[in-house]
């Protein structure tokens, strides 16, 4: 074995071990608090508000995004009053907790209903953005993103039940259920692949399809 091949082999083993270590880490919610489990299976409680849910670990294992039920009265949503929620970020060592998104009730301003009770937070594959979902209209939801460096938010697309695609041909894009209308009346709901910038790539299934099954079919597409 040459010195170059040996070095490559060592690097590959280190990379594999590092990836496995990140994959062994996890987060969970216990009695409304976020709990982080490291690669040695040691647990660490990250929050103590007893009002947290929907925790997700970043791709590098350094950050956790989650939803916190906010205090205060209900806010106006597109179909009625709802409890306010917030999107939060915290380091997996328990430091640096900060709020990313605060609920806003429906209004006639430019933001409309885009920030009503956010939920379903998910990291982009590069860990630079967090996507989340809101009830923005009576017939659909909306997917937005927040830049973790600048705090800037942007509308991605109308849609619901979204997921960040982690592997396969459309890796890094989003899949979501979109509500659309026929020209002469009526509507339908299909699963669409959408880029992080909101551009529709195309449909991959109907509303009768299980989302994970539709994604599984796409993994086999060359």
N-to-C CA distance: 35 Å
Described by strand count, sense and barrel closure, the largest sheet is:
4 strands, antiparallel
Count of discrete structural domains: 2
**Binned strand content:** 35-45%
Radius of gyration: 20 Å
Element pattern in H and E: HEEEEEEEEEEEEEEEEEH
Q: What structural class do the secondary elements suggest?
A: mainly beta
What is the residue-averaged pLDDT? Answer: 86
Tell me the CATH topology of the largest domain: Neuraminidase
Tell me the number of helical segments per DSSP (H or I, 4 or more residues long): 2
- The geometry reads as globular
Instruction: Please give the share of residues in helix.
Output: 10-25%
CATH class of the largest domain: Mainly Beta
Strand order of the largest sheet: 4-5-8-9
CATH architecture of the largest domain: 6 Propeller
Corresponding CATH superfamily of the largest domain: TolB, C-terminal domain
Number of strands: 17
* Low-confidence regions: 3-19
What does this protein structure show overall?
With 222 residues, the protein is mainly beta. The protein has 2 domains: 26-158, Neuraminidase; 165-222, no CATH class. Helix content is 14%, strand content 43%. It has a 4-stranded antiparallel β-sheet with strand order 4-5-8-9, with no helix packed on it. A hairpin with a 2-residue loop joins strand 6 (75-77) and strand 7.
Entry summary:
The chain is mainly beta and 222 residues long. The chain has two helices and 17 strands.
Features:
single chain, 222 residues, Neuraminidase, 4-stranded antiparallel β-sheet, 17 strands, 43% strand
